[in-house]
Amino acid sequence: MTTALSVDTIDLHYGAAQALKGISITCQPGRITAVLGRNGVGKSSTLRAITGINHVSAGSITFGDGALKRTPPYKRARMGIGYVPQGREIFPLLTVKENLETGYAGLKRSERNIPEYIFELFPVLKSMLGRRGGDLSGGQQQQLAIGRALVTRPKVLVLDEPTEGIQPSIIKDIGRALQFLRDEKGMTILLVEQYLDFCREIADDIYVMDRGEIMHSGPASDLDLPGVRRHLMV
Description:
Residues 5-234 form the ABC transporter domain. By secondary structure, this protein is α/β, with parallel strands linked by helices. The protein contains nine helices and ten strands. The mean pLDDT is 94.
């Protein structure tokens, strides 16, 4: 089976501090992979390494058939890595439509449109196209951030804590959207998350991190194992 995204024994440092130690993660095509762990264990640093925001100090990251090496973030986006950052980072003064259109940057002119399925997944975006992004609720902003990433036509969608600070009804909407993207679009999805029930419901594969290292990997059903839960307890 072809691997969509492979992280092979990467280290990452912030100055003298080591954030990641020998991290290896494999994302198979058309599956949802979840990386879990407490705050500060290196989950977001892993995604920042994958998206090219931070350079690794050892190891390699392979996307499709090629190694990413020191490929900058904008080139990774053009290659098909879509990123939904923690905190959403939408543009508060731009309208919903303008926020979505920022996803055009890496696309050919002929592809510069908003796929209709985004509005089917998140109908609220269509009804608020003229509203400023900053006027949306946190949950609506999260849907906008996911929609913006989908405009880039990603092969792999990378999400950093998509349920953080979101009301339960929108968490369910986001879960259904990610399952649709996997099942109907064949998209590969990698998400960092702390919400165990969300991961148990939608993830195929899980990795559990602690102190910058992978402590466990396996199927999502492993979330019920006491040894796995121990690494997730505050």
